[in-house]
Amino acid sequence: MKKNKILLLGFAFMFILLPVFAQSAPKKVPKGKEEWRYLNQAKEAFEKKDYGTAFTLAERSKEVRRQDSSYESYVLEYAQRKIKLRKVGDKLDEVLNELKVIKQDEAYRIIMRHLDKKGKAFFKNSFAKVLDYIPYYSNYAEADYLIAQIYRVETEYEIAMSYYKRAFSYCENLDVPAQKYDILYDMASLSFDMQNFDDYEKYLLMILDDNKYYKDDKFMNAVCNLITDSSGSLSKFFMLYRCDDFIGLKALIQLNDFYLKQGLTSKAFKTSALAAITAVTKIDHFYSTRDSNYEYKDFANLLRNCSKDEDVIKWGNDERIWELFYLFGKTCSENGKILFAKHLFETLKLDCPDPYWKKMAEKMLLG
To answer: CB atoms < 10 A from the CB of 110, how many?
Structure first.
């Protein structure tokens, strides 16, 4: 009798605890309440300059991402407790096959979602690496990036920078991987506004860390060695080399300007040369994709083509392209390539699409 009472009390205690355990299990984010929806709403509020609402919604999106991550970790860890799954080992292909066999459909869906976004190579075909990644995934880089922009608008620069840094530290979570360069450009821009010029240079150089041309010493030496005072050097320079890393173009232009003002002419020489080639490559690519009969002839002819196209002229002004060619000439001159610079300024004086930089080139020729 006493034994039966103990059993009854045990069952009663279990039923009391069941709701507690049920409540502790993370819940799946309901459809229509996903983190990206809150983030989109936050962006809309930001565009409307409703910064308080934008901040609240961005923080809410981060909470939902954490909830989603907790739920996914819970589902995968629960599936991992299955004896059959443990026997399979760590190879992701085999784990996925077994999940289908034992009908752990939610676990299978979660893994496939991350594989679709990141690719198998990212996880090295390891189930353990997926498990390790999920807590990292809880950090919502896009939301931190937006919050940084909110604080920057409010002139809370130190706080803004801390959020930029946090967003960049979790850049592997970005839905659009290239957005990490937007973050770095904003970090560089804010550093400049804060007059922290060491960090300004550092963040621009971090953008160029992924530029295969800038990091290739042999390529850069070959490019710079083409800049001579010999006849036809200008034509040969723009004819022989191309650089299609357009993401780094703005960083090269900004570094060139920065180095010139700091008197670091040899550093400016490198960034300026690559920037000029990249800009010509971009313009050349634009015309070749638009017109199947287009053919690059020389730098002067390319500028004359640009002068006929208002959209290209505007783009060149917005992206500082015409200024870049002027600065390239100035950089060459300060590095002792006087005749090369003279030929470049003569070309700009005649054919630069923007009248201001035409006049600036003419001033350089007048001395």
So the answer is: 21
Of 44, 203, 65, which Cα lies nearest the Cα of 143? 65
The radius of gyration of the chain's CA atoms, rounded to the nearest angstrom, is: 29
CA distance 85 to 289: 52
pLDDT in tens, 238-293: 999 999 999 999 999 999 999 999 999 999 999 999 999 999 999 999 999 998 88
Put simply, whether the predicted model's pTM sits higher than 0.70 gets the answer yes
Distance CA 245, CA 223 (A): 15
Three-class secondary structure of residue 231 per DSSP: coil
- The residues facing 126 across adjacent strands are 91
**DSSP per position, 91-138:** BHHHHHHHHHHTT-HHHHHHHHHHHHHH-HHHHTTBHHHHHHHHHHHT
Which residue, among 10, 28, 29, 30, has the nearest Cα to 18 in the 3D structure? 10
Task: Judge whether 245 and 178 are in contact, CB under 8 Å.
Answer: no
Amino acid at 243: C
Q: Please, which residues bridge with residue 286 across strands?
A: none
Contact between 298 and 229 under an 8 Å Cβ cutoff? The reply is: no
Q: C-alpha angle with apex 306: 301 to 307, nearest 5 degrees?
A: 95
d(CA 188, CA 196): 9
Cα separation, 299 vs 310, in Å, equals 19
